[in-house]
Amino acid sequence: MAKLIDMLNSEMIVINAGLRSFYEDLKNQNVKVEHINWKPPAGGDPEIIEALDKLLANKSLLEKIQKANDEAVERMMSSQLFLVDIKPANEVVPDFKGKIILHSGPPIEWSRMCGPTKGAILGACVYEGWAQSIEEAEKMCEAGAIKFDPCHHHNTVGPMAGIVSPSMWVFCVQNKTFGNFAYCTLNEGLGKVLRFGANSEDVIKRLKWMEQVLAPGLAKAVKLAVEKEGGINIKSLMAQVLMMGDECHNRNVAGTTLFIKEITPYLLQTDLDKKTIKDIIDFMAGNVHFFLNLTMPAQKASADTIKNIKYCSIMYAMARNGTDTGIRISGLGDKWFVAPSGMPKGLYFAGFSEEDANPDLGDSTITETAGVGANAMAGAPAIVKFVGGTPADALKVTKETYYITHTKHRDFQLPSLNFEGTPLGFDLIKIINTGITPFINTGIAHKKPGIGQVGAGILRAPMDCFKKAFKDFVKTYC
């Protein structure tokens, strides 16, 4: 009784679980209150809850899943990721011959493609010389003269529209631990660029300069780096830039700077003339997102190592094509589980608003998949100046992500969290059990083809992807 009286006489703190409005009402009355962001599993879906109960009751299966998931995250953490070459896509990307264009996200046919993806594809057709105008390119695409396939089906990733055509040069990143490769085009910059659906003459001209000057020049420098040090260690650079306020997805200021610092001594040793070297360095220095197209294939080369681990419930790909968002789960092999892409909330360039925006698109969520990007926002509070929100929001994103991932990355650490590792290994079962889906920070493209980037923002992956995958997982293993 004395303890009860003491408790009643002491200062009380209310814990609110459920509706946030209750928390707000108490807070407005100056009551000390903490809010728990609790949600029923899978949004309260009875069929999913029944399947979850069935899985969680199977102790021997849970042990197999735990062991498989441990193996998966260990593979990703032990991956050593090096830039070892830059080559034309049709020379290195697997199964990439003829009139074929790769795009971001899960498979999609021309008639369902969004405006930015169509705009970028039309620009690529003109860039390749397959068509002399955007109008001619559109007729070719409508007639089925061009083949389309996801980047992910060819060991490749592409930001936003994700377009890769045969003549575009790509970064070649090798996972030296496991021997596999991943590829990505070189970053054009922000605004009116092909990956956001722009396809005007100046966009094509820039791509041609990248093909004829930028990529071959950097390739000479990378060759020297390979001869001296086996290549450029992208994983090491990523670990460093996380200490410097980048999150390796939408903030790449430090990453681009460190890459320039790394590549410049090799550029100076090539046979390139001074003006060409200056032009290459100026281009990279004027494009703070240049490093993104290196983190993406590095993370792809890491995540691909966990494909087809039996019983593994870890996600190894998450990608969007502006119409659909798709995920792939290690223990379920090549299957895509898709749902409609969401609409980002964020900051818009002058003259644009949410009414102009296309739903979410791009393969750049491979960064989150393997442990950086939105997962690391706590270490990159300045990102909110680009995608919206407050520094406290950035911290919250990372902390919440720990609830739905398998472990903390031992190499990717965050100073703002006492050097805790970033959340690694999105676990399908935890996502279903908590009702929490991964955060994505992203660029925003105009919904009409030919215009380009209009802003940047943040959103969550759609739950329906994970519901579909979970049903298949339970059917496969229970």
Low-pLDDT ranges: none
User: Structural class of the secondary elements?
Assistant: alpha+beta
Largest sheet, described in full?
Answer: 4 strands, antiparallel
Global morphology: globular
Query: Into which percent range does the helicity of residues fall?
Result: 40-55%
Total domain count:
3
The overall strand count is: 17
Description:
The chain is of the alpha+beta class and 478 residues long. The protein has three domains: 12-41, no CATH class; 43-76 and 307-477, v583 fold; 80-297, Enterococcus faecalis V583 domain (Enterococcus faecalis V583 fold). The chain has helices spanning 2-9, 20-28, 46-56, 59-78, 89-92, 115-128, 134-142, 201-229, 234-242, 253-268, 274-285, 292-303, 366-369, 384-387, 391-401, 428-434, 463-477, and strands spanning 14-17, 33-36, 81-88, 100-103, 147-150, 169-175, 181-185, 232-233, 315-321, 324-329, 337-340, 345-348, 361-362, 405-414, 420-426, 439-445, 453-460. Strand 9 (315-321) and strand 10 form a beta hairpin. The longest helix is centred in the middle third of the chain and has 29 residues, at 201-229. The N and C termini lie far apart (50 Å).
Concise summary:
With 478 residues, the protein is α+β, with helices and mostly antiparallel strands. The chain has helices at 2-9, 20-28, 46-56, 59-78, 89-92, 115-128, 134-142, 201-229, 234-242, 253-268, 274-285, 292-303, 366-369, 384-387, 391-401, 428-434, 463-477; strands spanning 14-17, 33-36, 81-88, 100-103, 147-150, 169-175, 181-185, 232-233, 315-321, 324-329, 337-340, 345-348, 361-362, 405-414, 420-426, 439-445, 453-460. It has three domains: 12-41, no CATH class; 43-76 and 307-477, v583 fold (Alpha-Beta Complex); 80-297, Enterococcus faecalis V583 fold, CATH 3.90.1710.10.
